[in-house]
Amino acid sequence: MTTKAAKASVWQKSWFILQSLVTKDFKLKYRRSVLGILWSVLNPLLMMVVLSAVFSMFLKWDNIDHFPLYLILGTILFSLMQNSTTAAMYSILDAAPLIKKVRVEKMIFPVEKAVFELVNFAISLVAVVLVMLYFRVMPTVNLVFLPLLLFYVVAFSAGIGLLLSALAVFFRDICHLWGVVITAWTYGTPIFYPVTLLDPFMQQIMQLNPMYHYVFYFRDIVMWNTNPGIKENLICFAMAAITFLVGYLVFRKSESKFILYV
């Protein structure tokens, strides 16, 4: 078999494993559920209703038009990153029995979690459409940027997932620490509140938060009919590319030792 044919065979095998893992995760997620896949639509809607009631009625943030839409856009995009990175962190540990028995591309396991959550995100967009219809917010041509945004977020999430999955093999404390980090990150991103609530210094610091850029990119193209522009796209791309590269390099450097620690 030639080198080219061997590489093609490896890619075919990896693609088959990726598809199988995504299918398995879907079956596990909705197993014994009456509503099944509808929960991917209902969950963001129910969360939006609860959070809208809390933040609109008690904190009275009236300066954000269509606050429930503002809220659901932030929550579902942040959840894409949160769920994929958290699941990816455990992916190598959970796949230990398979890794010990079969020679397989280990990077598939954390990357699959980002792909799986992307599919869930696509389903949850139905909830966004329903909220847009309720508020009579019409889609615009700027929605053509959505695939580009999802590329950024999935690459960014996969990079963090690769890093966490590698670290978790050697340091189990990462699994506990990440829960604290992701909670702080949630409240440190303007998902539930307007960025103008922060003082100018903190608004400058916020520019270093990748999820701030991704969330507002999403709101720009859905709510505010704003073209993100070349500068914002370059920032989003750079953050995703650097994160993925770091995660990839750490994962590749340490994967040969996984079998000794899982």
Structure characteristics:
0% strand; transmembrane helix; transport; 262 residues; mainly alpha; 76% helix
Secondary-structure map with pairings?
Blueprint: H1 3-29, H2 39-58, H3 67-94, H4 96-101, H5 108-135, H6 146-170, H7 173-187, H8 200-206, H9 210-222, H10 229-254, H11 258-261
Helix pairs in contact: 1-5, 2-3, 2-5, 3-5, 3-6, 3-7, 3-9, 5-6, 6-9, 6-10, 9-10
GO cellular component, one term: ATP-binding cassette (ABC) transporter complex
InterPro entries: ABC2_TM, ABC2_TM_bact-type, ABC_2_transport
Transmembrane segments: 34-58, 70-93, 114-137, 149-170, 177-196, 232-251
Describe the structure.
The longest helix is centred in the N-terminal third of the chain and has 28 residues. Helix 3 packs antiparallel against helix 5. The protein has eleven helices and no strands. The protein is mainly alpha-helical. The model has no long low-confidence stretch (mean pLDDT 89).
Radius of gyration: 20 Å
Principal-axes shape call: globular
Strand content: under 5%
Largest beta sheet, briefly?
Answer: none
Q: Label the structural class.
A: mainly alpha
Low-confidence stretches: none
Mean pLDDT: 89
**Considering DSSP H and I runs of 4 or more, what fraction of the residues is helical?**
over 70%
Strand-and-helix sequence, N→C? Answer: HHHHHHHHHHH
Figure out the total of helices. Answer: 11
Number-wise, the strands total: 0
Subcellular location: Cell inner membrane; Cell membrane
InterPro entries: ABC2_TM, ABC2_TM_bact-type, ABC_2_transport
Keywords: Cell inner membrane, Cell membrane, Membrane, Transmembrane, Transmembrane helix, Transport
Main location: membrane
